[in-house]
Amino acid sequence: MIYRNISISMVVxxxxxxxxxxxxxxxxxxxxxxxxxxxxxxxxxxxxxxxxKFYALLESTGVIEELxxxxxxxxxxxxxxQIGDFxxxxxxxxxxxARNHVNIGNTYVNRLDDEVIRTLNGKLLRLARKEGxxxxxxxxxxxxxxxxxxxxxxxxxxxLLPKLNILEYFKVNAPKFTKVNKLLEEGKYKVVDYxxxxxxxxxxxxxxxYDTVWMEKNSYLEKIGDFxxxxxxxxxFLPTDEMIEKxxxxxxxxxxxxxxxISKAKALEIKDLVEKSILANWLxxxxxxxxxxxxxxxxxxxxxxxxxxxxxxxxSVVNLxxxxxxxxxxxKTDIRDLIVxxxxxxxKQVGDWYNENRVRSSSDELILSRSDKGLRVVAANxxxxxxxxxxxxxxxxxxxxxxxxxxxxxxxxxxxxCTKVKVExxxxxxxxxxxxxxxIWGDYAKEGIIVTQSGANKMRITMLKANPKNENGxxxxxxxxxxxPQF
Amino acid sequence: MDRNKIKIYLTFSLILFASFTEIFAQENEVExxxxxxxxxxxxxxxxxxxxxxxxxxxxxxERKTSVDQVLTGNVPGLWAVDRSGxxxxxxxxxxxxxxxxxxETAPLIIVDGVPFEYASLGHSLVEGAYINPLNAIxxxxxxxxxxxxxxxxxxxxxxxxxxxxxxxxxxxxxxxTISFSAYGGVTTSPEKQSVMxxxxxxxxASDLLASSSEPSxxxxxxxxxxxxxxxxxxxxxxxxxxxxxxxxxQNGLLQGYNVKVDGGDEIAKYAFSAGYTNREGIVKNTDMxxxxxxxxxxxxxxxxxxxxxxxxVSISEFNLLEESGTSRANALYASYFKxxxxxxxxxxxxxxxxxxxxxxxxxxxxxxxxLVDNMKAETTTYRLNTSSKFTxxxxxxxxxxxxxxxxxxxxxxxxxxxxxxxxxxxxxxxxHGVERFLSFYNDLYLEKQFRLSNDHQLSALAGVRYRENxxxxxxxxxxxxxxxxxxxxxxxxxxxxxxxxGQITSWNEATAYGLVNYAFKQRYYLSGSLSYDGSSNYGExxxxxxxxxxxxxxxxxxxxxxxxxxxxxxxxxxxxxxSLTGNDRFSMLYGTRHLVxxxxxxxxxxxxxxxxxxxxxxxxxxxxxxxxxxxxFKDRLHLxxxxxxxxxxxxxxxxxxxELLTGHxxxxxxxxxxxxxxxxxxxxxxxRDVKFSVGGNIAMNDNQLKSVSNTxxxxxxxxxxxxxxxxxxxxxxxxxxGAAMNQFFGYRALxxxxxxxxxxxxxxxxxxxxxxxxxxxxxxxVDKNGIIDEKDKQAIGNSLPDVTGGFFTExxxxxxxxxxxxxxxxxxxxYNFTRRSLESMSSFNNQSKATLRRWRKEGDVTDIPIASxxxxxxxxxxxxxxxxxxxxxxxxxxxxxxxxxxxxxYRNLRVYLTMxxxxxxxxxxxxxxxxxxxxxxxxxxxxxxxxxxxxGIQLGL
Lengths: 487, 957
Hints:
The complex is a heterodimer.
Chain A: H1 2-19, H2 24-30, H3 41-46, H4 52-60, H5 63-69, E1 73-78, H6 91-99, E2 102-104, E3 114-118, E4 124-130, E5 133-136, E6 139-148, E7 151-156, H7 166-172, H8 178-186, E8 188-192, E9 198-202, E10 208-211, E11 214-218, H9 219-224, E12 234-237, H10 241-256, H11 264-281, E13 297-299, E14 305-307, H12 309-314, E15 317-320, E16 323-326, H13 335-343, E17 345-348, H14 350-356, E18 358-360, E19 366-368, E20 377-380, E21 391-400, E22 405-411, E23 420-425, E24 428-433, E25 443-451, E26 456-463, E27 480-486
Parallel strand pairs in A: 1-7, 12-16
Antiparallel strand pairs in A: 1-2, 3-4, 4-5, 5-6, 6-7, 8-11, 9-10, 13-14, 15-16, 17-27, 18-19, 20-21, 21-26, 22-25, 22-27, 23-24, 23-26
Chain B: H1 3-24, E1 51-55, H2 56-62, E2 78-82, E3 91-95, E4 108-111, E5 114-115, E6 142-148, E7 163-168, E8 177-187, H3 198-211, H4 219-222, H5 235-238, H6 244-248, E9 252-264, E10 268-280, E11 287-302, E12 305-319, H7 331-337, E13 345-347, E14 353-357, H8 368-374, E15 376-395, E16 398-417, E17 429-451, E18 456-479, E19 499-520, E20 524-535, E21 545-556, H9 561-564, E22 569-583, E23 595-600, E24 603-608, E25 619-632, E26 637-656, E27 664-687, E28 690-708, E29 722-726, E30 732-736, E31 743-746, E32 749-752, H10 756-762, E33 765-766, E34 777-779, E35 787-788, E36 794-798, E37 803-813, E38 816-826, E39 829-831, H11 833-839, E40 883-885, E41 888-900, E42 908-922, E43 948-956
Parallel strand pairs in B: 4-7, 33-35
Antiparallel strand pairs in B: 1-6, 2-3, 4-5, 6-7, 8-9, 8-43, 9-10, 10-11, 11-12, 12-15, 13-14, 15-16, 16-17, 17-18, 18-19, 19-20, 20-21, 21-22, 22-25, 23-24, 25-26, 26-27, 27-28, 28-37, 29-30, 30-31, 31-36, 32-34, 37-38, 38-41, 39-40, 41-42, 42-43
Helix pairs in contact in B: 7-8
């Protein structure tokens, strides 16, 4: 009996010895994980004494609930002793403030050079390494407090106050920006959002009928650039009403001090044009992060050039979330160029009208077609092609301004001397003749000067001499005419 | 586990066992010795050989699919490493260290006297899979297995790694008996790889995005899985927590049936058996099914002349798992790497489940279930062995024997990798292949027993044998059929995708051999053997024949007067042996110029495959061993000890031609030495009502590459004393003169830089000049030049174990029996490629939970570096990070048997319950370290072994 018991005991002991550490190495390798790595950032934050105020800010503004839905976020937290007092902020401001401290994704600072992230309120936040420190927006990164299952928590030395973007700044300071806000308002329009609209069926005409969802758009933003876009950093001058008014008066009267005449009505019209030009160019083409980086002249979004001395003199900068705004009492620009741009009239593709736009119908009725350039042919005689006496009459894009001297220029007339056209405008008449030595593509300008008294908005072009054809058999006509105001 | 612990275990056990033996020595009966069983069909085993045997009874209870798996832990010095847990892959056999580089190192296998082709067969088109040719032999049909460790020179150029003799069912019954055995059981799915869940994966993915050049702005718009937005269309795609391993793993059922009928009379005896085996793997839709039939007979045509025909037919069908090192078609790998945030089925925008599997997705990992369900990896093997042995007894101890045999084998592969839900570049993929093998063998020998006097005994044997072999493989590949419903290889696809290739090789062996045994007074034994062996495998201009020999002696001290009356020492003998054997089991293509098919534009061409070494000769091994065997305490305790030195010369080495041209040259260029000890113990501690015996063996081997010469061919690149072998994942092994072979060759990882200051202080840069930073791995700068590059690679681990062995214990009480056996190994490292893939954190593959403690901020003290997409700093390069201690001790099998009391209608009935892979004490972080591959050192994503439970009966009528 004793022998049997001893034998059984030995077998059992052997089993125990074998089973005691069957998976120790495996467990030690795979299960040895710091607790924090399986913890959620919200849970840790809620239990932290040092960040209790910060947690309260996030909780009261609903950010905690958003964090719970995120699988990877970075929280830029501030300890109680550095957080300051935000109790007087409005609920919406608090929410913007809270949301400015969280971004989606794990953002590490240990290998950072320069980085831009987007916070929950859509604002861009710049992270930079400078002189041994890491700056996060306007604050300084102190340390990474924790690395969690669903994100990171970094400590900053102060709250990240959210900046306004350009559009928000104009709205918040609306009384100063009525002109630009008016343009914004006028530019609004709605289009159907076909992606979100649900097709309900078809009407009797077979057209699809939608349960329509509308999308709001803005033609001014489309033209000038979307300055609510947080993704793009812009440079601009602040288009305050005062600045624009003064820019007109300083620039315009300066010009007219030099003795040019212009009617009062036209002057007012030009003022509109001047303002429109500034309002189309206050966003700059290039970015300048500081006044020191500004060159002597800078270019606006639509190509207008401005001198920067007034900006430098004022030396006032507003840092926005998506831009750097420079203030100035007024802007200097080349008003002459502005007025010429405003007054000149261009008629393009004139020559094409003779061929393309005069079509014989079956009843010999001459049918005139429209150009897609928007010019309107109002009349033509019945001789098509190259016949002597063939003419067309066209409406000008806009009326020539009375009491302004214009120079009429034509281009691409023809090389040979056999070409001759008559241009009649108002009660004035001008003859253009091909020069022997003229380059077929070069300017052929006769100094046709018009001094319009009563204004003119119609022009007739008559062929006086047969046009030769070029080597391709294409008849050649004047391609381009323009009226340039002369000062 | 370190070596010391193993030693303590064994020492303790030995002391305990020895003390028990001391107590009970007086009280127990003498038992029949077990060490001198001589298999009927082998004339080569002699009294001077060292041999180990395993009985058929043991084999039957173990329920393995092939005999090689039973050898684990049972033969000193023989390390049988399971290739994987996939049914049918069997075990790789390594004996006494590694003594070759390009030749086969498995022992020679002789089945019923006929060499059994093993090494050149079984290479399936299913990547990573190997079909063990030994599957053709049902273990139920095995009567006995003997491994002969020395004195096998009569097998000449095939014997340098020992000889495994397998004897199938004996025909010795004169009374008809019917035996039936059946078993059924289950293989439980193994412990899963510890990989991340959905939340943990998202965190890692976010870290990878943060490390990349991907702009941080609006990440959640490009990667919606970062947010849980129920209104987002992506919510239904990424909002899962799928356990992919659970989806594809299963508990595999196993069952087997065998019927044996034997009987006869004085004139004719027969043994017929038929069997069926089916084993499911632990991955769904993988299994092995085998049908086998065997007939052995012995017919005494007339008194002096007998005829023994044997026929065995086996058909095996496999549904395999592709076991390559990528997740493209390897379902197991895909289940590790597939992101848990993805779902099994595709869903529409409303979240409604669709009736098909989800697509691959941007994480670029195949769908594991799509692979398991829709991929086909089928292999069928057919094997026919037939032999006839004629024996004529001239009388006076002289016999003539003639053995003739045919061995025909065919293996057919059909692989189809679908396109849907599977990563692919060319669409779906078809691979077909056929492997045909034919061998003709005949052996004519005379054996004579001389009765010189009572004191002098002499036996001799002489013969000639000839073997002719032919192997043909034909393979085809195509890709891009119009849909997965057209899996046939001819179903469309661009011409540029089509490939066909194969080879035909034939090789012959011829040997004249002789063996003499002499015994004097049953006390002094001498034996010698000689073979003049020819092989067609050598170079065209080399000498085709070589002489091999062995000579040995044994002195039975216990028969001397001074010990003959010793009551404690029953048998004590000393033995020694010296032999010269060879190894010609390498590709005959090394010594022969040959061409290979190569695609050229849209057509086919042929190119030179190699530069032939026309003087290539066999590897030659000289072995000296000396040992002692003892049987003590009335045969209650058996001990055996052997010391050996094996020197192998003319080892084949591959030399590359130059850095620009592919192609290589093989030469006899190295010398390898293995020396060590083998100890075995077998003790009957109790032998009364309770019978209790224990035993085990331990082998210690010291391997060394003695030299590597530069080639005789001037054009080839010299090795300059070292040979480097490439492994999976740009890992390498190195064999250097004066050191152990196959050491892992890589970087030494010293830890993770915990902060920027430490990193800056080290001033280390990578080969491109990029500085290592906080969170990166600090590698050892061997040449101290501040740059971590190829020159900093060094030998970092040992892939060959220093110590291997096995142990068993058996308890019998009345009708109950309990047998436990296990094995162990120590002193080596394993390369865990799977863990490397699961911890490199360089792509969006799911990773192991260990990466949860990855470095993330200044001051983090951890062993896991920063997550970095693309791993630009090479933190996951092959280094000591991926090597683990391979030391293990494993309780492999526990078997409980019960002999049911006899009743009228049956002779005997035994029931048993067997548990396999019971428990393992190991130090590595992967699956069984014994599956890593001895000398291969890799732990790739092969199907792991796991615990199985089997209940069976053996009924004799």
